Amino acid sequence: MKALWISLLALVLVMPAFGTSIIFPTFSTPVMAGDTLVVVSPDRMAFIGLSKSGKKMWTQPLSTKGSLIEHGSGRTLLVQGSSVSSLNPKDGTIKPLFDSDPKVEWMKYSPEADLFWGRLLGDEPGLALFDGDTHTCLAKEVSGETVAYADAGLVVIAKGLRKPVRGGHTFSKGWIEGFDRKAMKRIWSAPFEKEPSPYHFVVRCGGYVVCEDGRELMVIDVKSGELRRRPAAMPEDALGPKGLRDENGDLVYLTTVMNMSNFHESEQTLYRLRLPHLEVLEKKVMKVIEAVTSEKAGDLLITDALYRTACFRPDGSKLWEHFQMHRTPVIDGVIYFSDYKEGVARMGALDVSTGDQTIFISEKVEMR
């Protein structure tokens, strides 16, 4: 049973939202574009613009399925495979921006580095990277699977050697490489020894890049590439560490001890550690199911799971919990979200301090 939960938690790593939807059809994660909320319809064939109060302002049909990108300049962009367009959030009009490479499966974007990137299809899978302003191709990395982290000076690419299996592939080897953002020159490389998949949590904390590898943590000096590998602080029978994030230069992550008799009584521990030696500064125990990421909102802590988002008080007690959410970060005390309930895809707003939610739009949908 524990192996099943490890597999489910691993799936969260590749999903492009705070909350995830592996089974249920929903509106996309809302994007705040100026004063307009923009979402994609459950079938991904239309954009919808709404005011902050939930009034529908416009609908823009699409010729092929699309997704949204928030550009570092503040623009809202539409992605349709390898093509990127600019969206006017005031009226929903669309203007073509650029076509990347016909072999790119689907374009993504890292705003911290102003970098477009997408996986290349073909006999030798790889990753193509494009400048966010000039749209010129900066690099094509064979075996590249994802941009694990990026900022103005550093790009971390996760790579893997694929191993064909019936109906798809697995990985025989995985590693990450650090690149100088300006020259796209590789400056260091570090292997995953416990889990060969390239899909791991990766975060930068000050002068270090940290990633999990099974029950171990890898701490990499950004400039020198010096690697420290240590067992993660966690209970002996816990899953994790997951949801690595930076908090004022310290490393924060979650671990889970599953209660197989009552999942609602599963125990999460939030750790805060000092780098580079991973000294434990704080740990807090909470009751929540399979949370893998966390976000601070004042004194409150919000966690995201495979199918739930929950909010905790400073003492670790639960304030509220909601099922199946794709959400924005907290914006002025509000989370804008999309979810699924009883055959209906919904999009609305949630008050963080109370957990009260208001539904803006809804659509009856069929299960995929």
Q: Any overview of this molecule?
A:
The protein is 3% helix and 55% strand. It is mainly β and 368 residues long. The two termini are 25 Å apart. A hairpin with a 6-residue loop joins strand 29 (325-327) and strand 30. The model is unreliable at 1-21 (pLDDT under 50). The chain has one helix and 32 strands. The chain has one domain: Peptidase/esterase 'gauge' domain (Methylamine Dehydrogenase, Chain H), CATH 2.130.10. The longest helix is centred in the first third of the chain and has 11 residues, at 2-12. The strands form eight sheets. It has a four-stranded antiparallel beta sheet, with no helix packed on it. A four-stranded antiparallel beta sheet has the order 5-6-7-8, with no helix packed on it. Strands 9-10-11-12 form a four-stranded antiparallel beta sheet, with no helix packed on it. The protein has one helix spanning 2-12, and strands at residues 31-33, 36-40, 46-51, 56-61, 67-70, 76-80, 83-87, 94-99, 108-110, 115-120, 126-131, 137-142, 144-150, 154-165, 168-180, 185-191, 202-205, 208-213, 216-221, 227-231, 239-247, 250-257, 267-274, 279-287, 293-297, 300-304, 308-312, 318-323, 325-327, 334-341, 344-351, 357-364. The protein is globular and about 50 Å long.
Concise overview:
With 368 residues, the chain is mainly beta. It has one helix at 2-12, and strands at residues 31-33, 36-40, 46-51, 56-61, 67-70, 76-80, 83-87, 94-99, 108-110, 115-120, 126-131, 137-142, 144-150, 154-165, 168-180, 185-191, 202-205, 208-213, 216-221, 227-231, 239-247, 250-257, 267-274, 279-287, 293-297, 300-304, 308-312, 318-323, 325-327, 334-341, 344-351, 357-364.
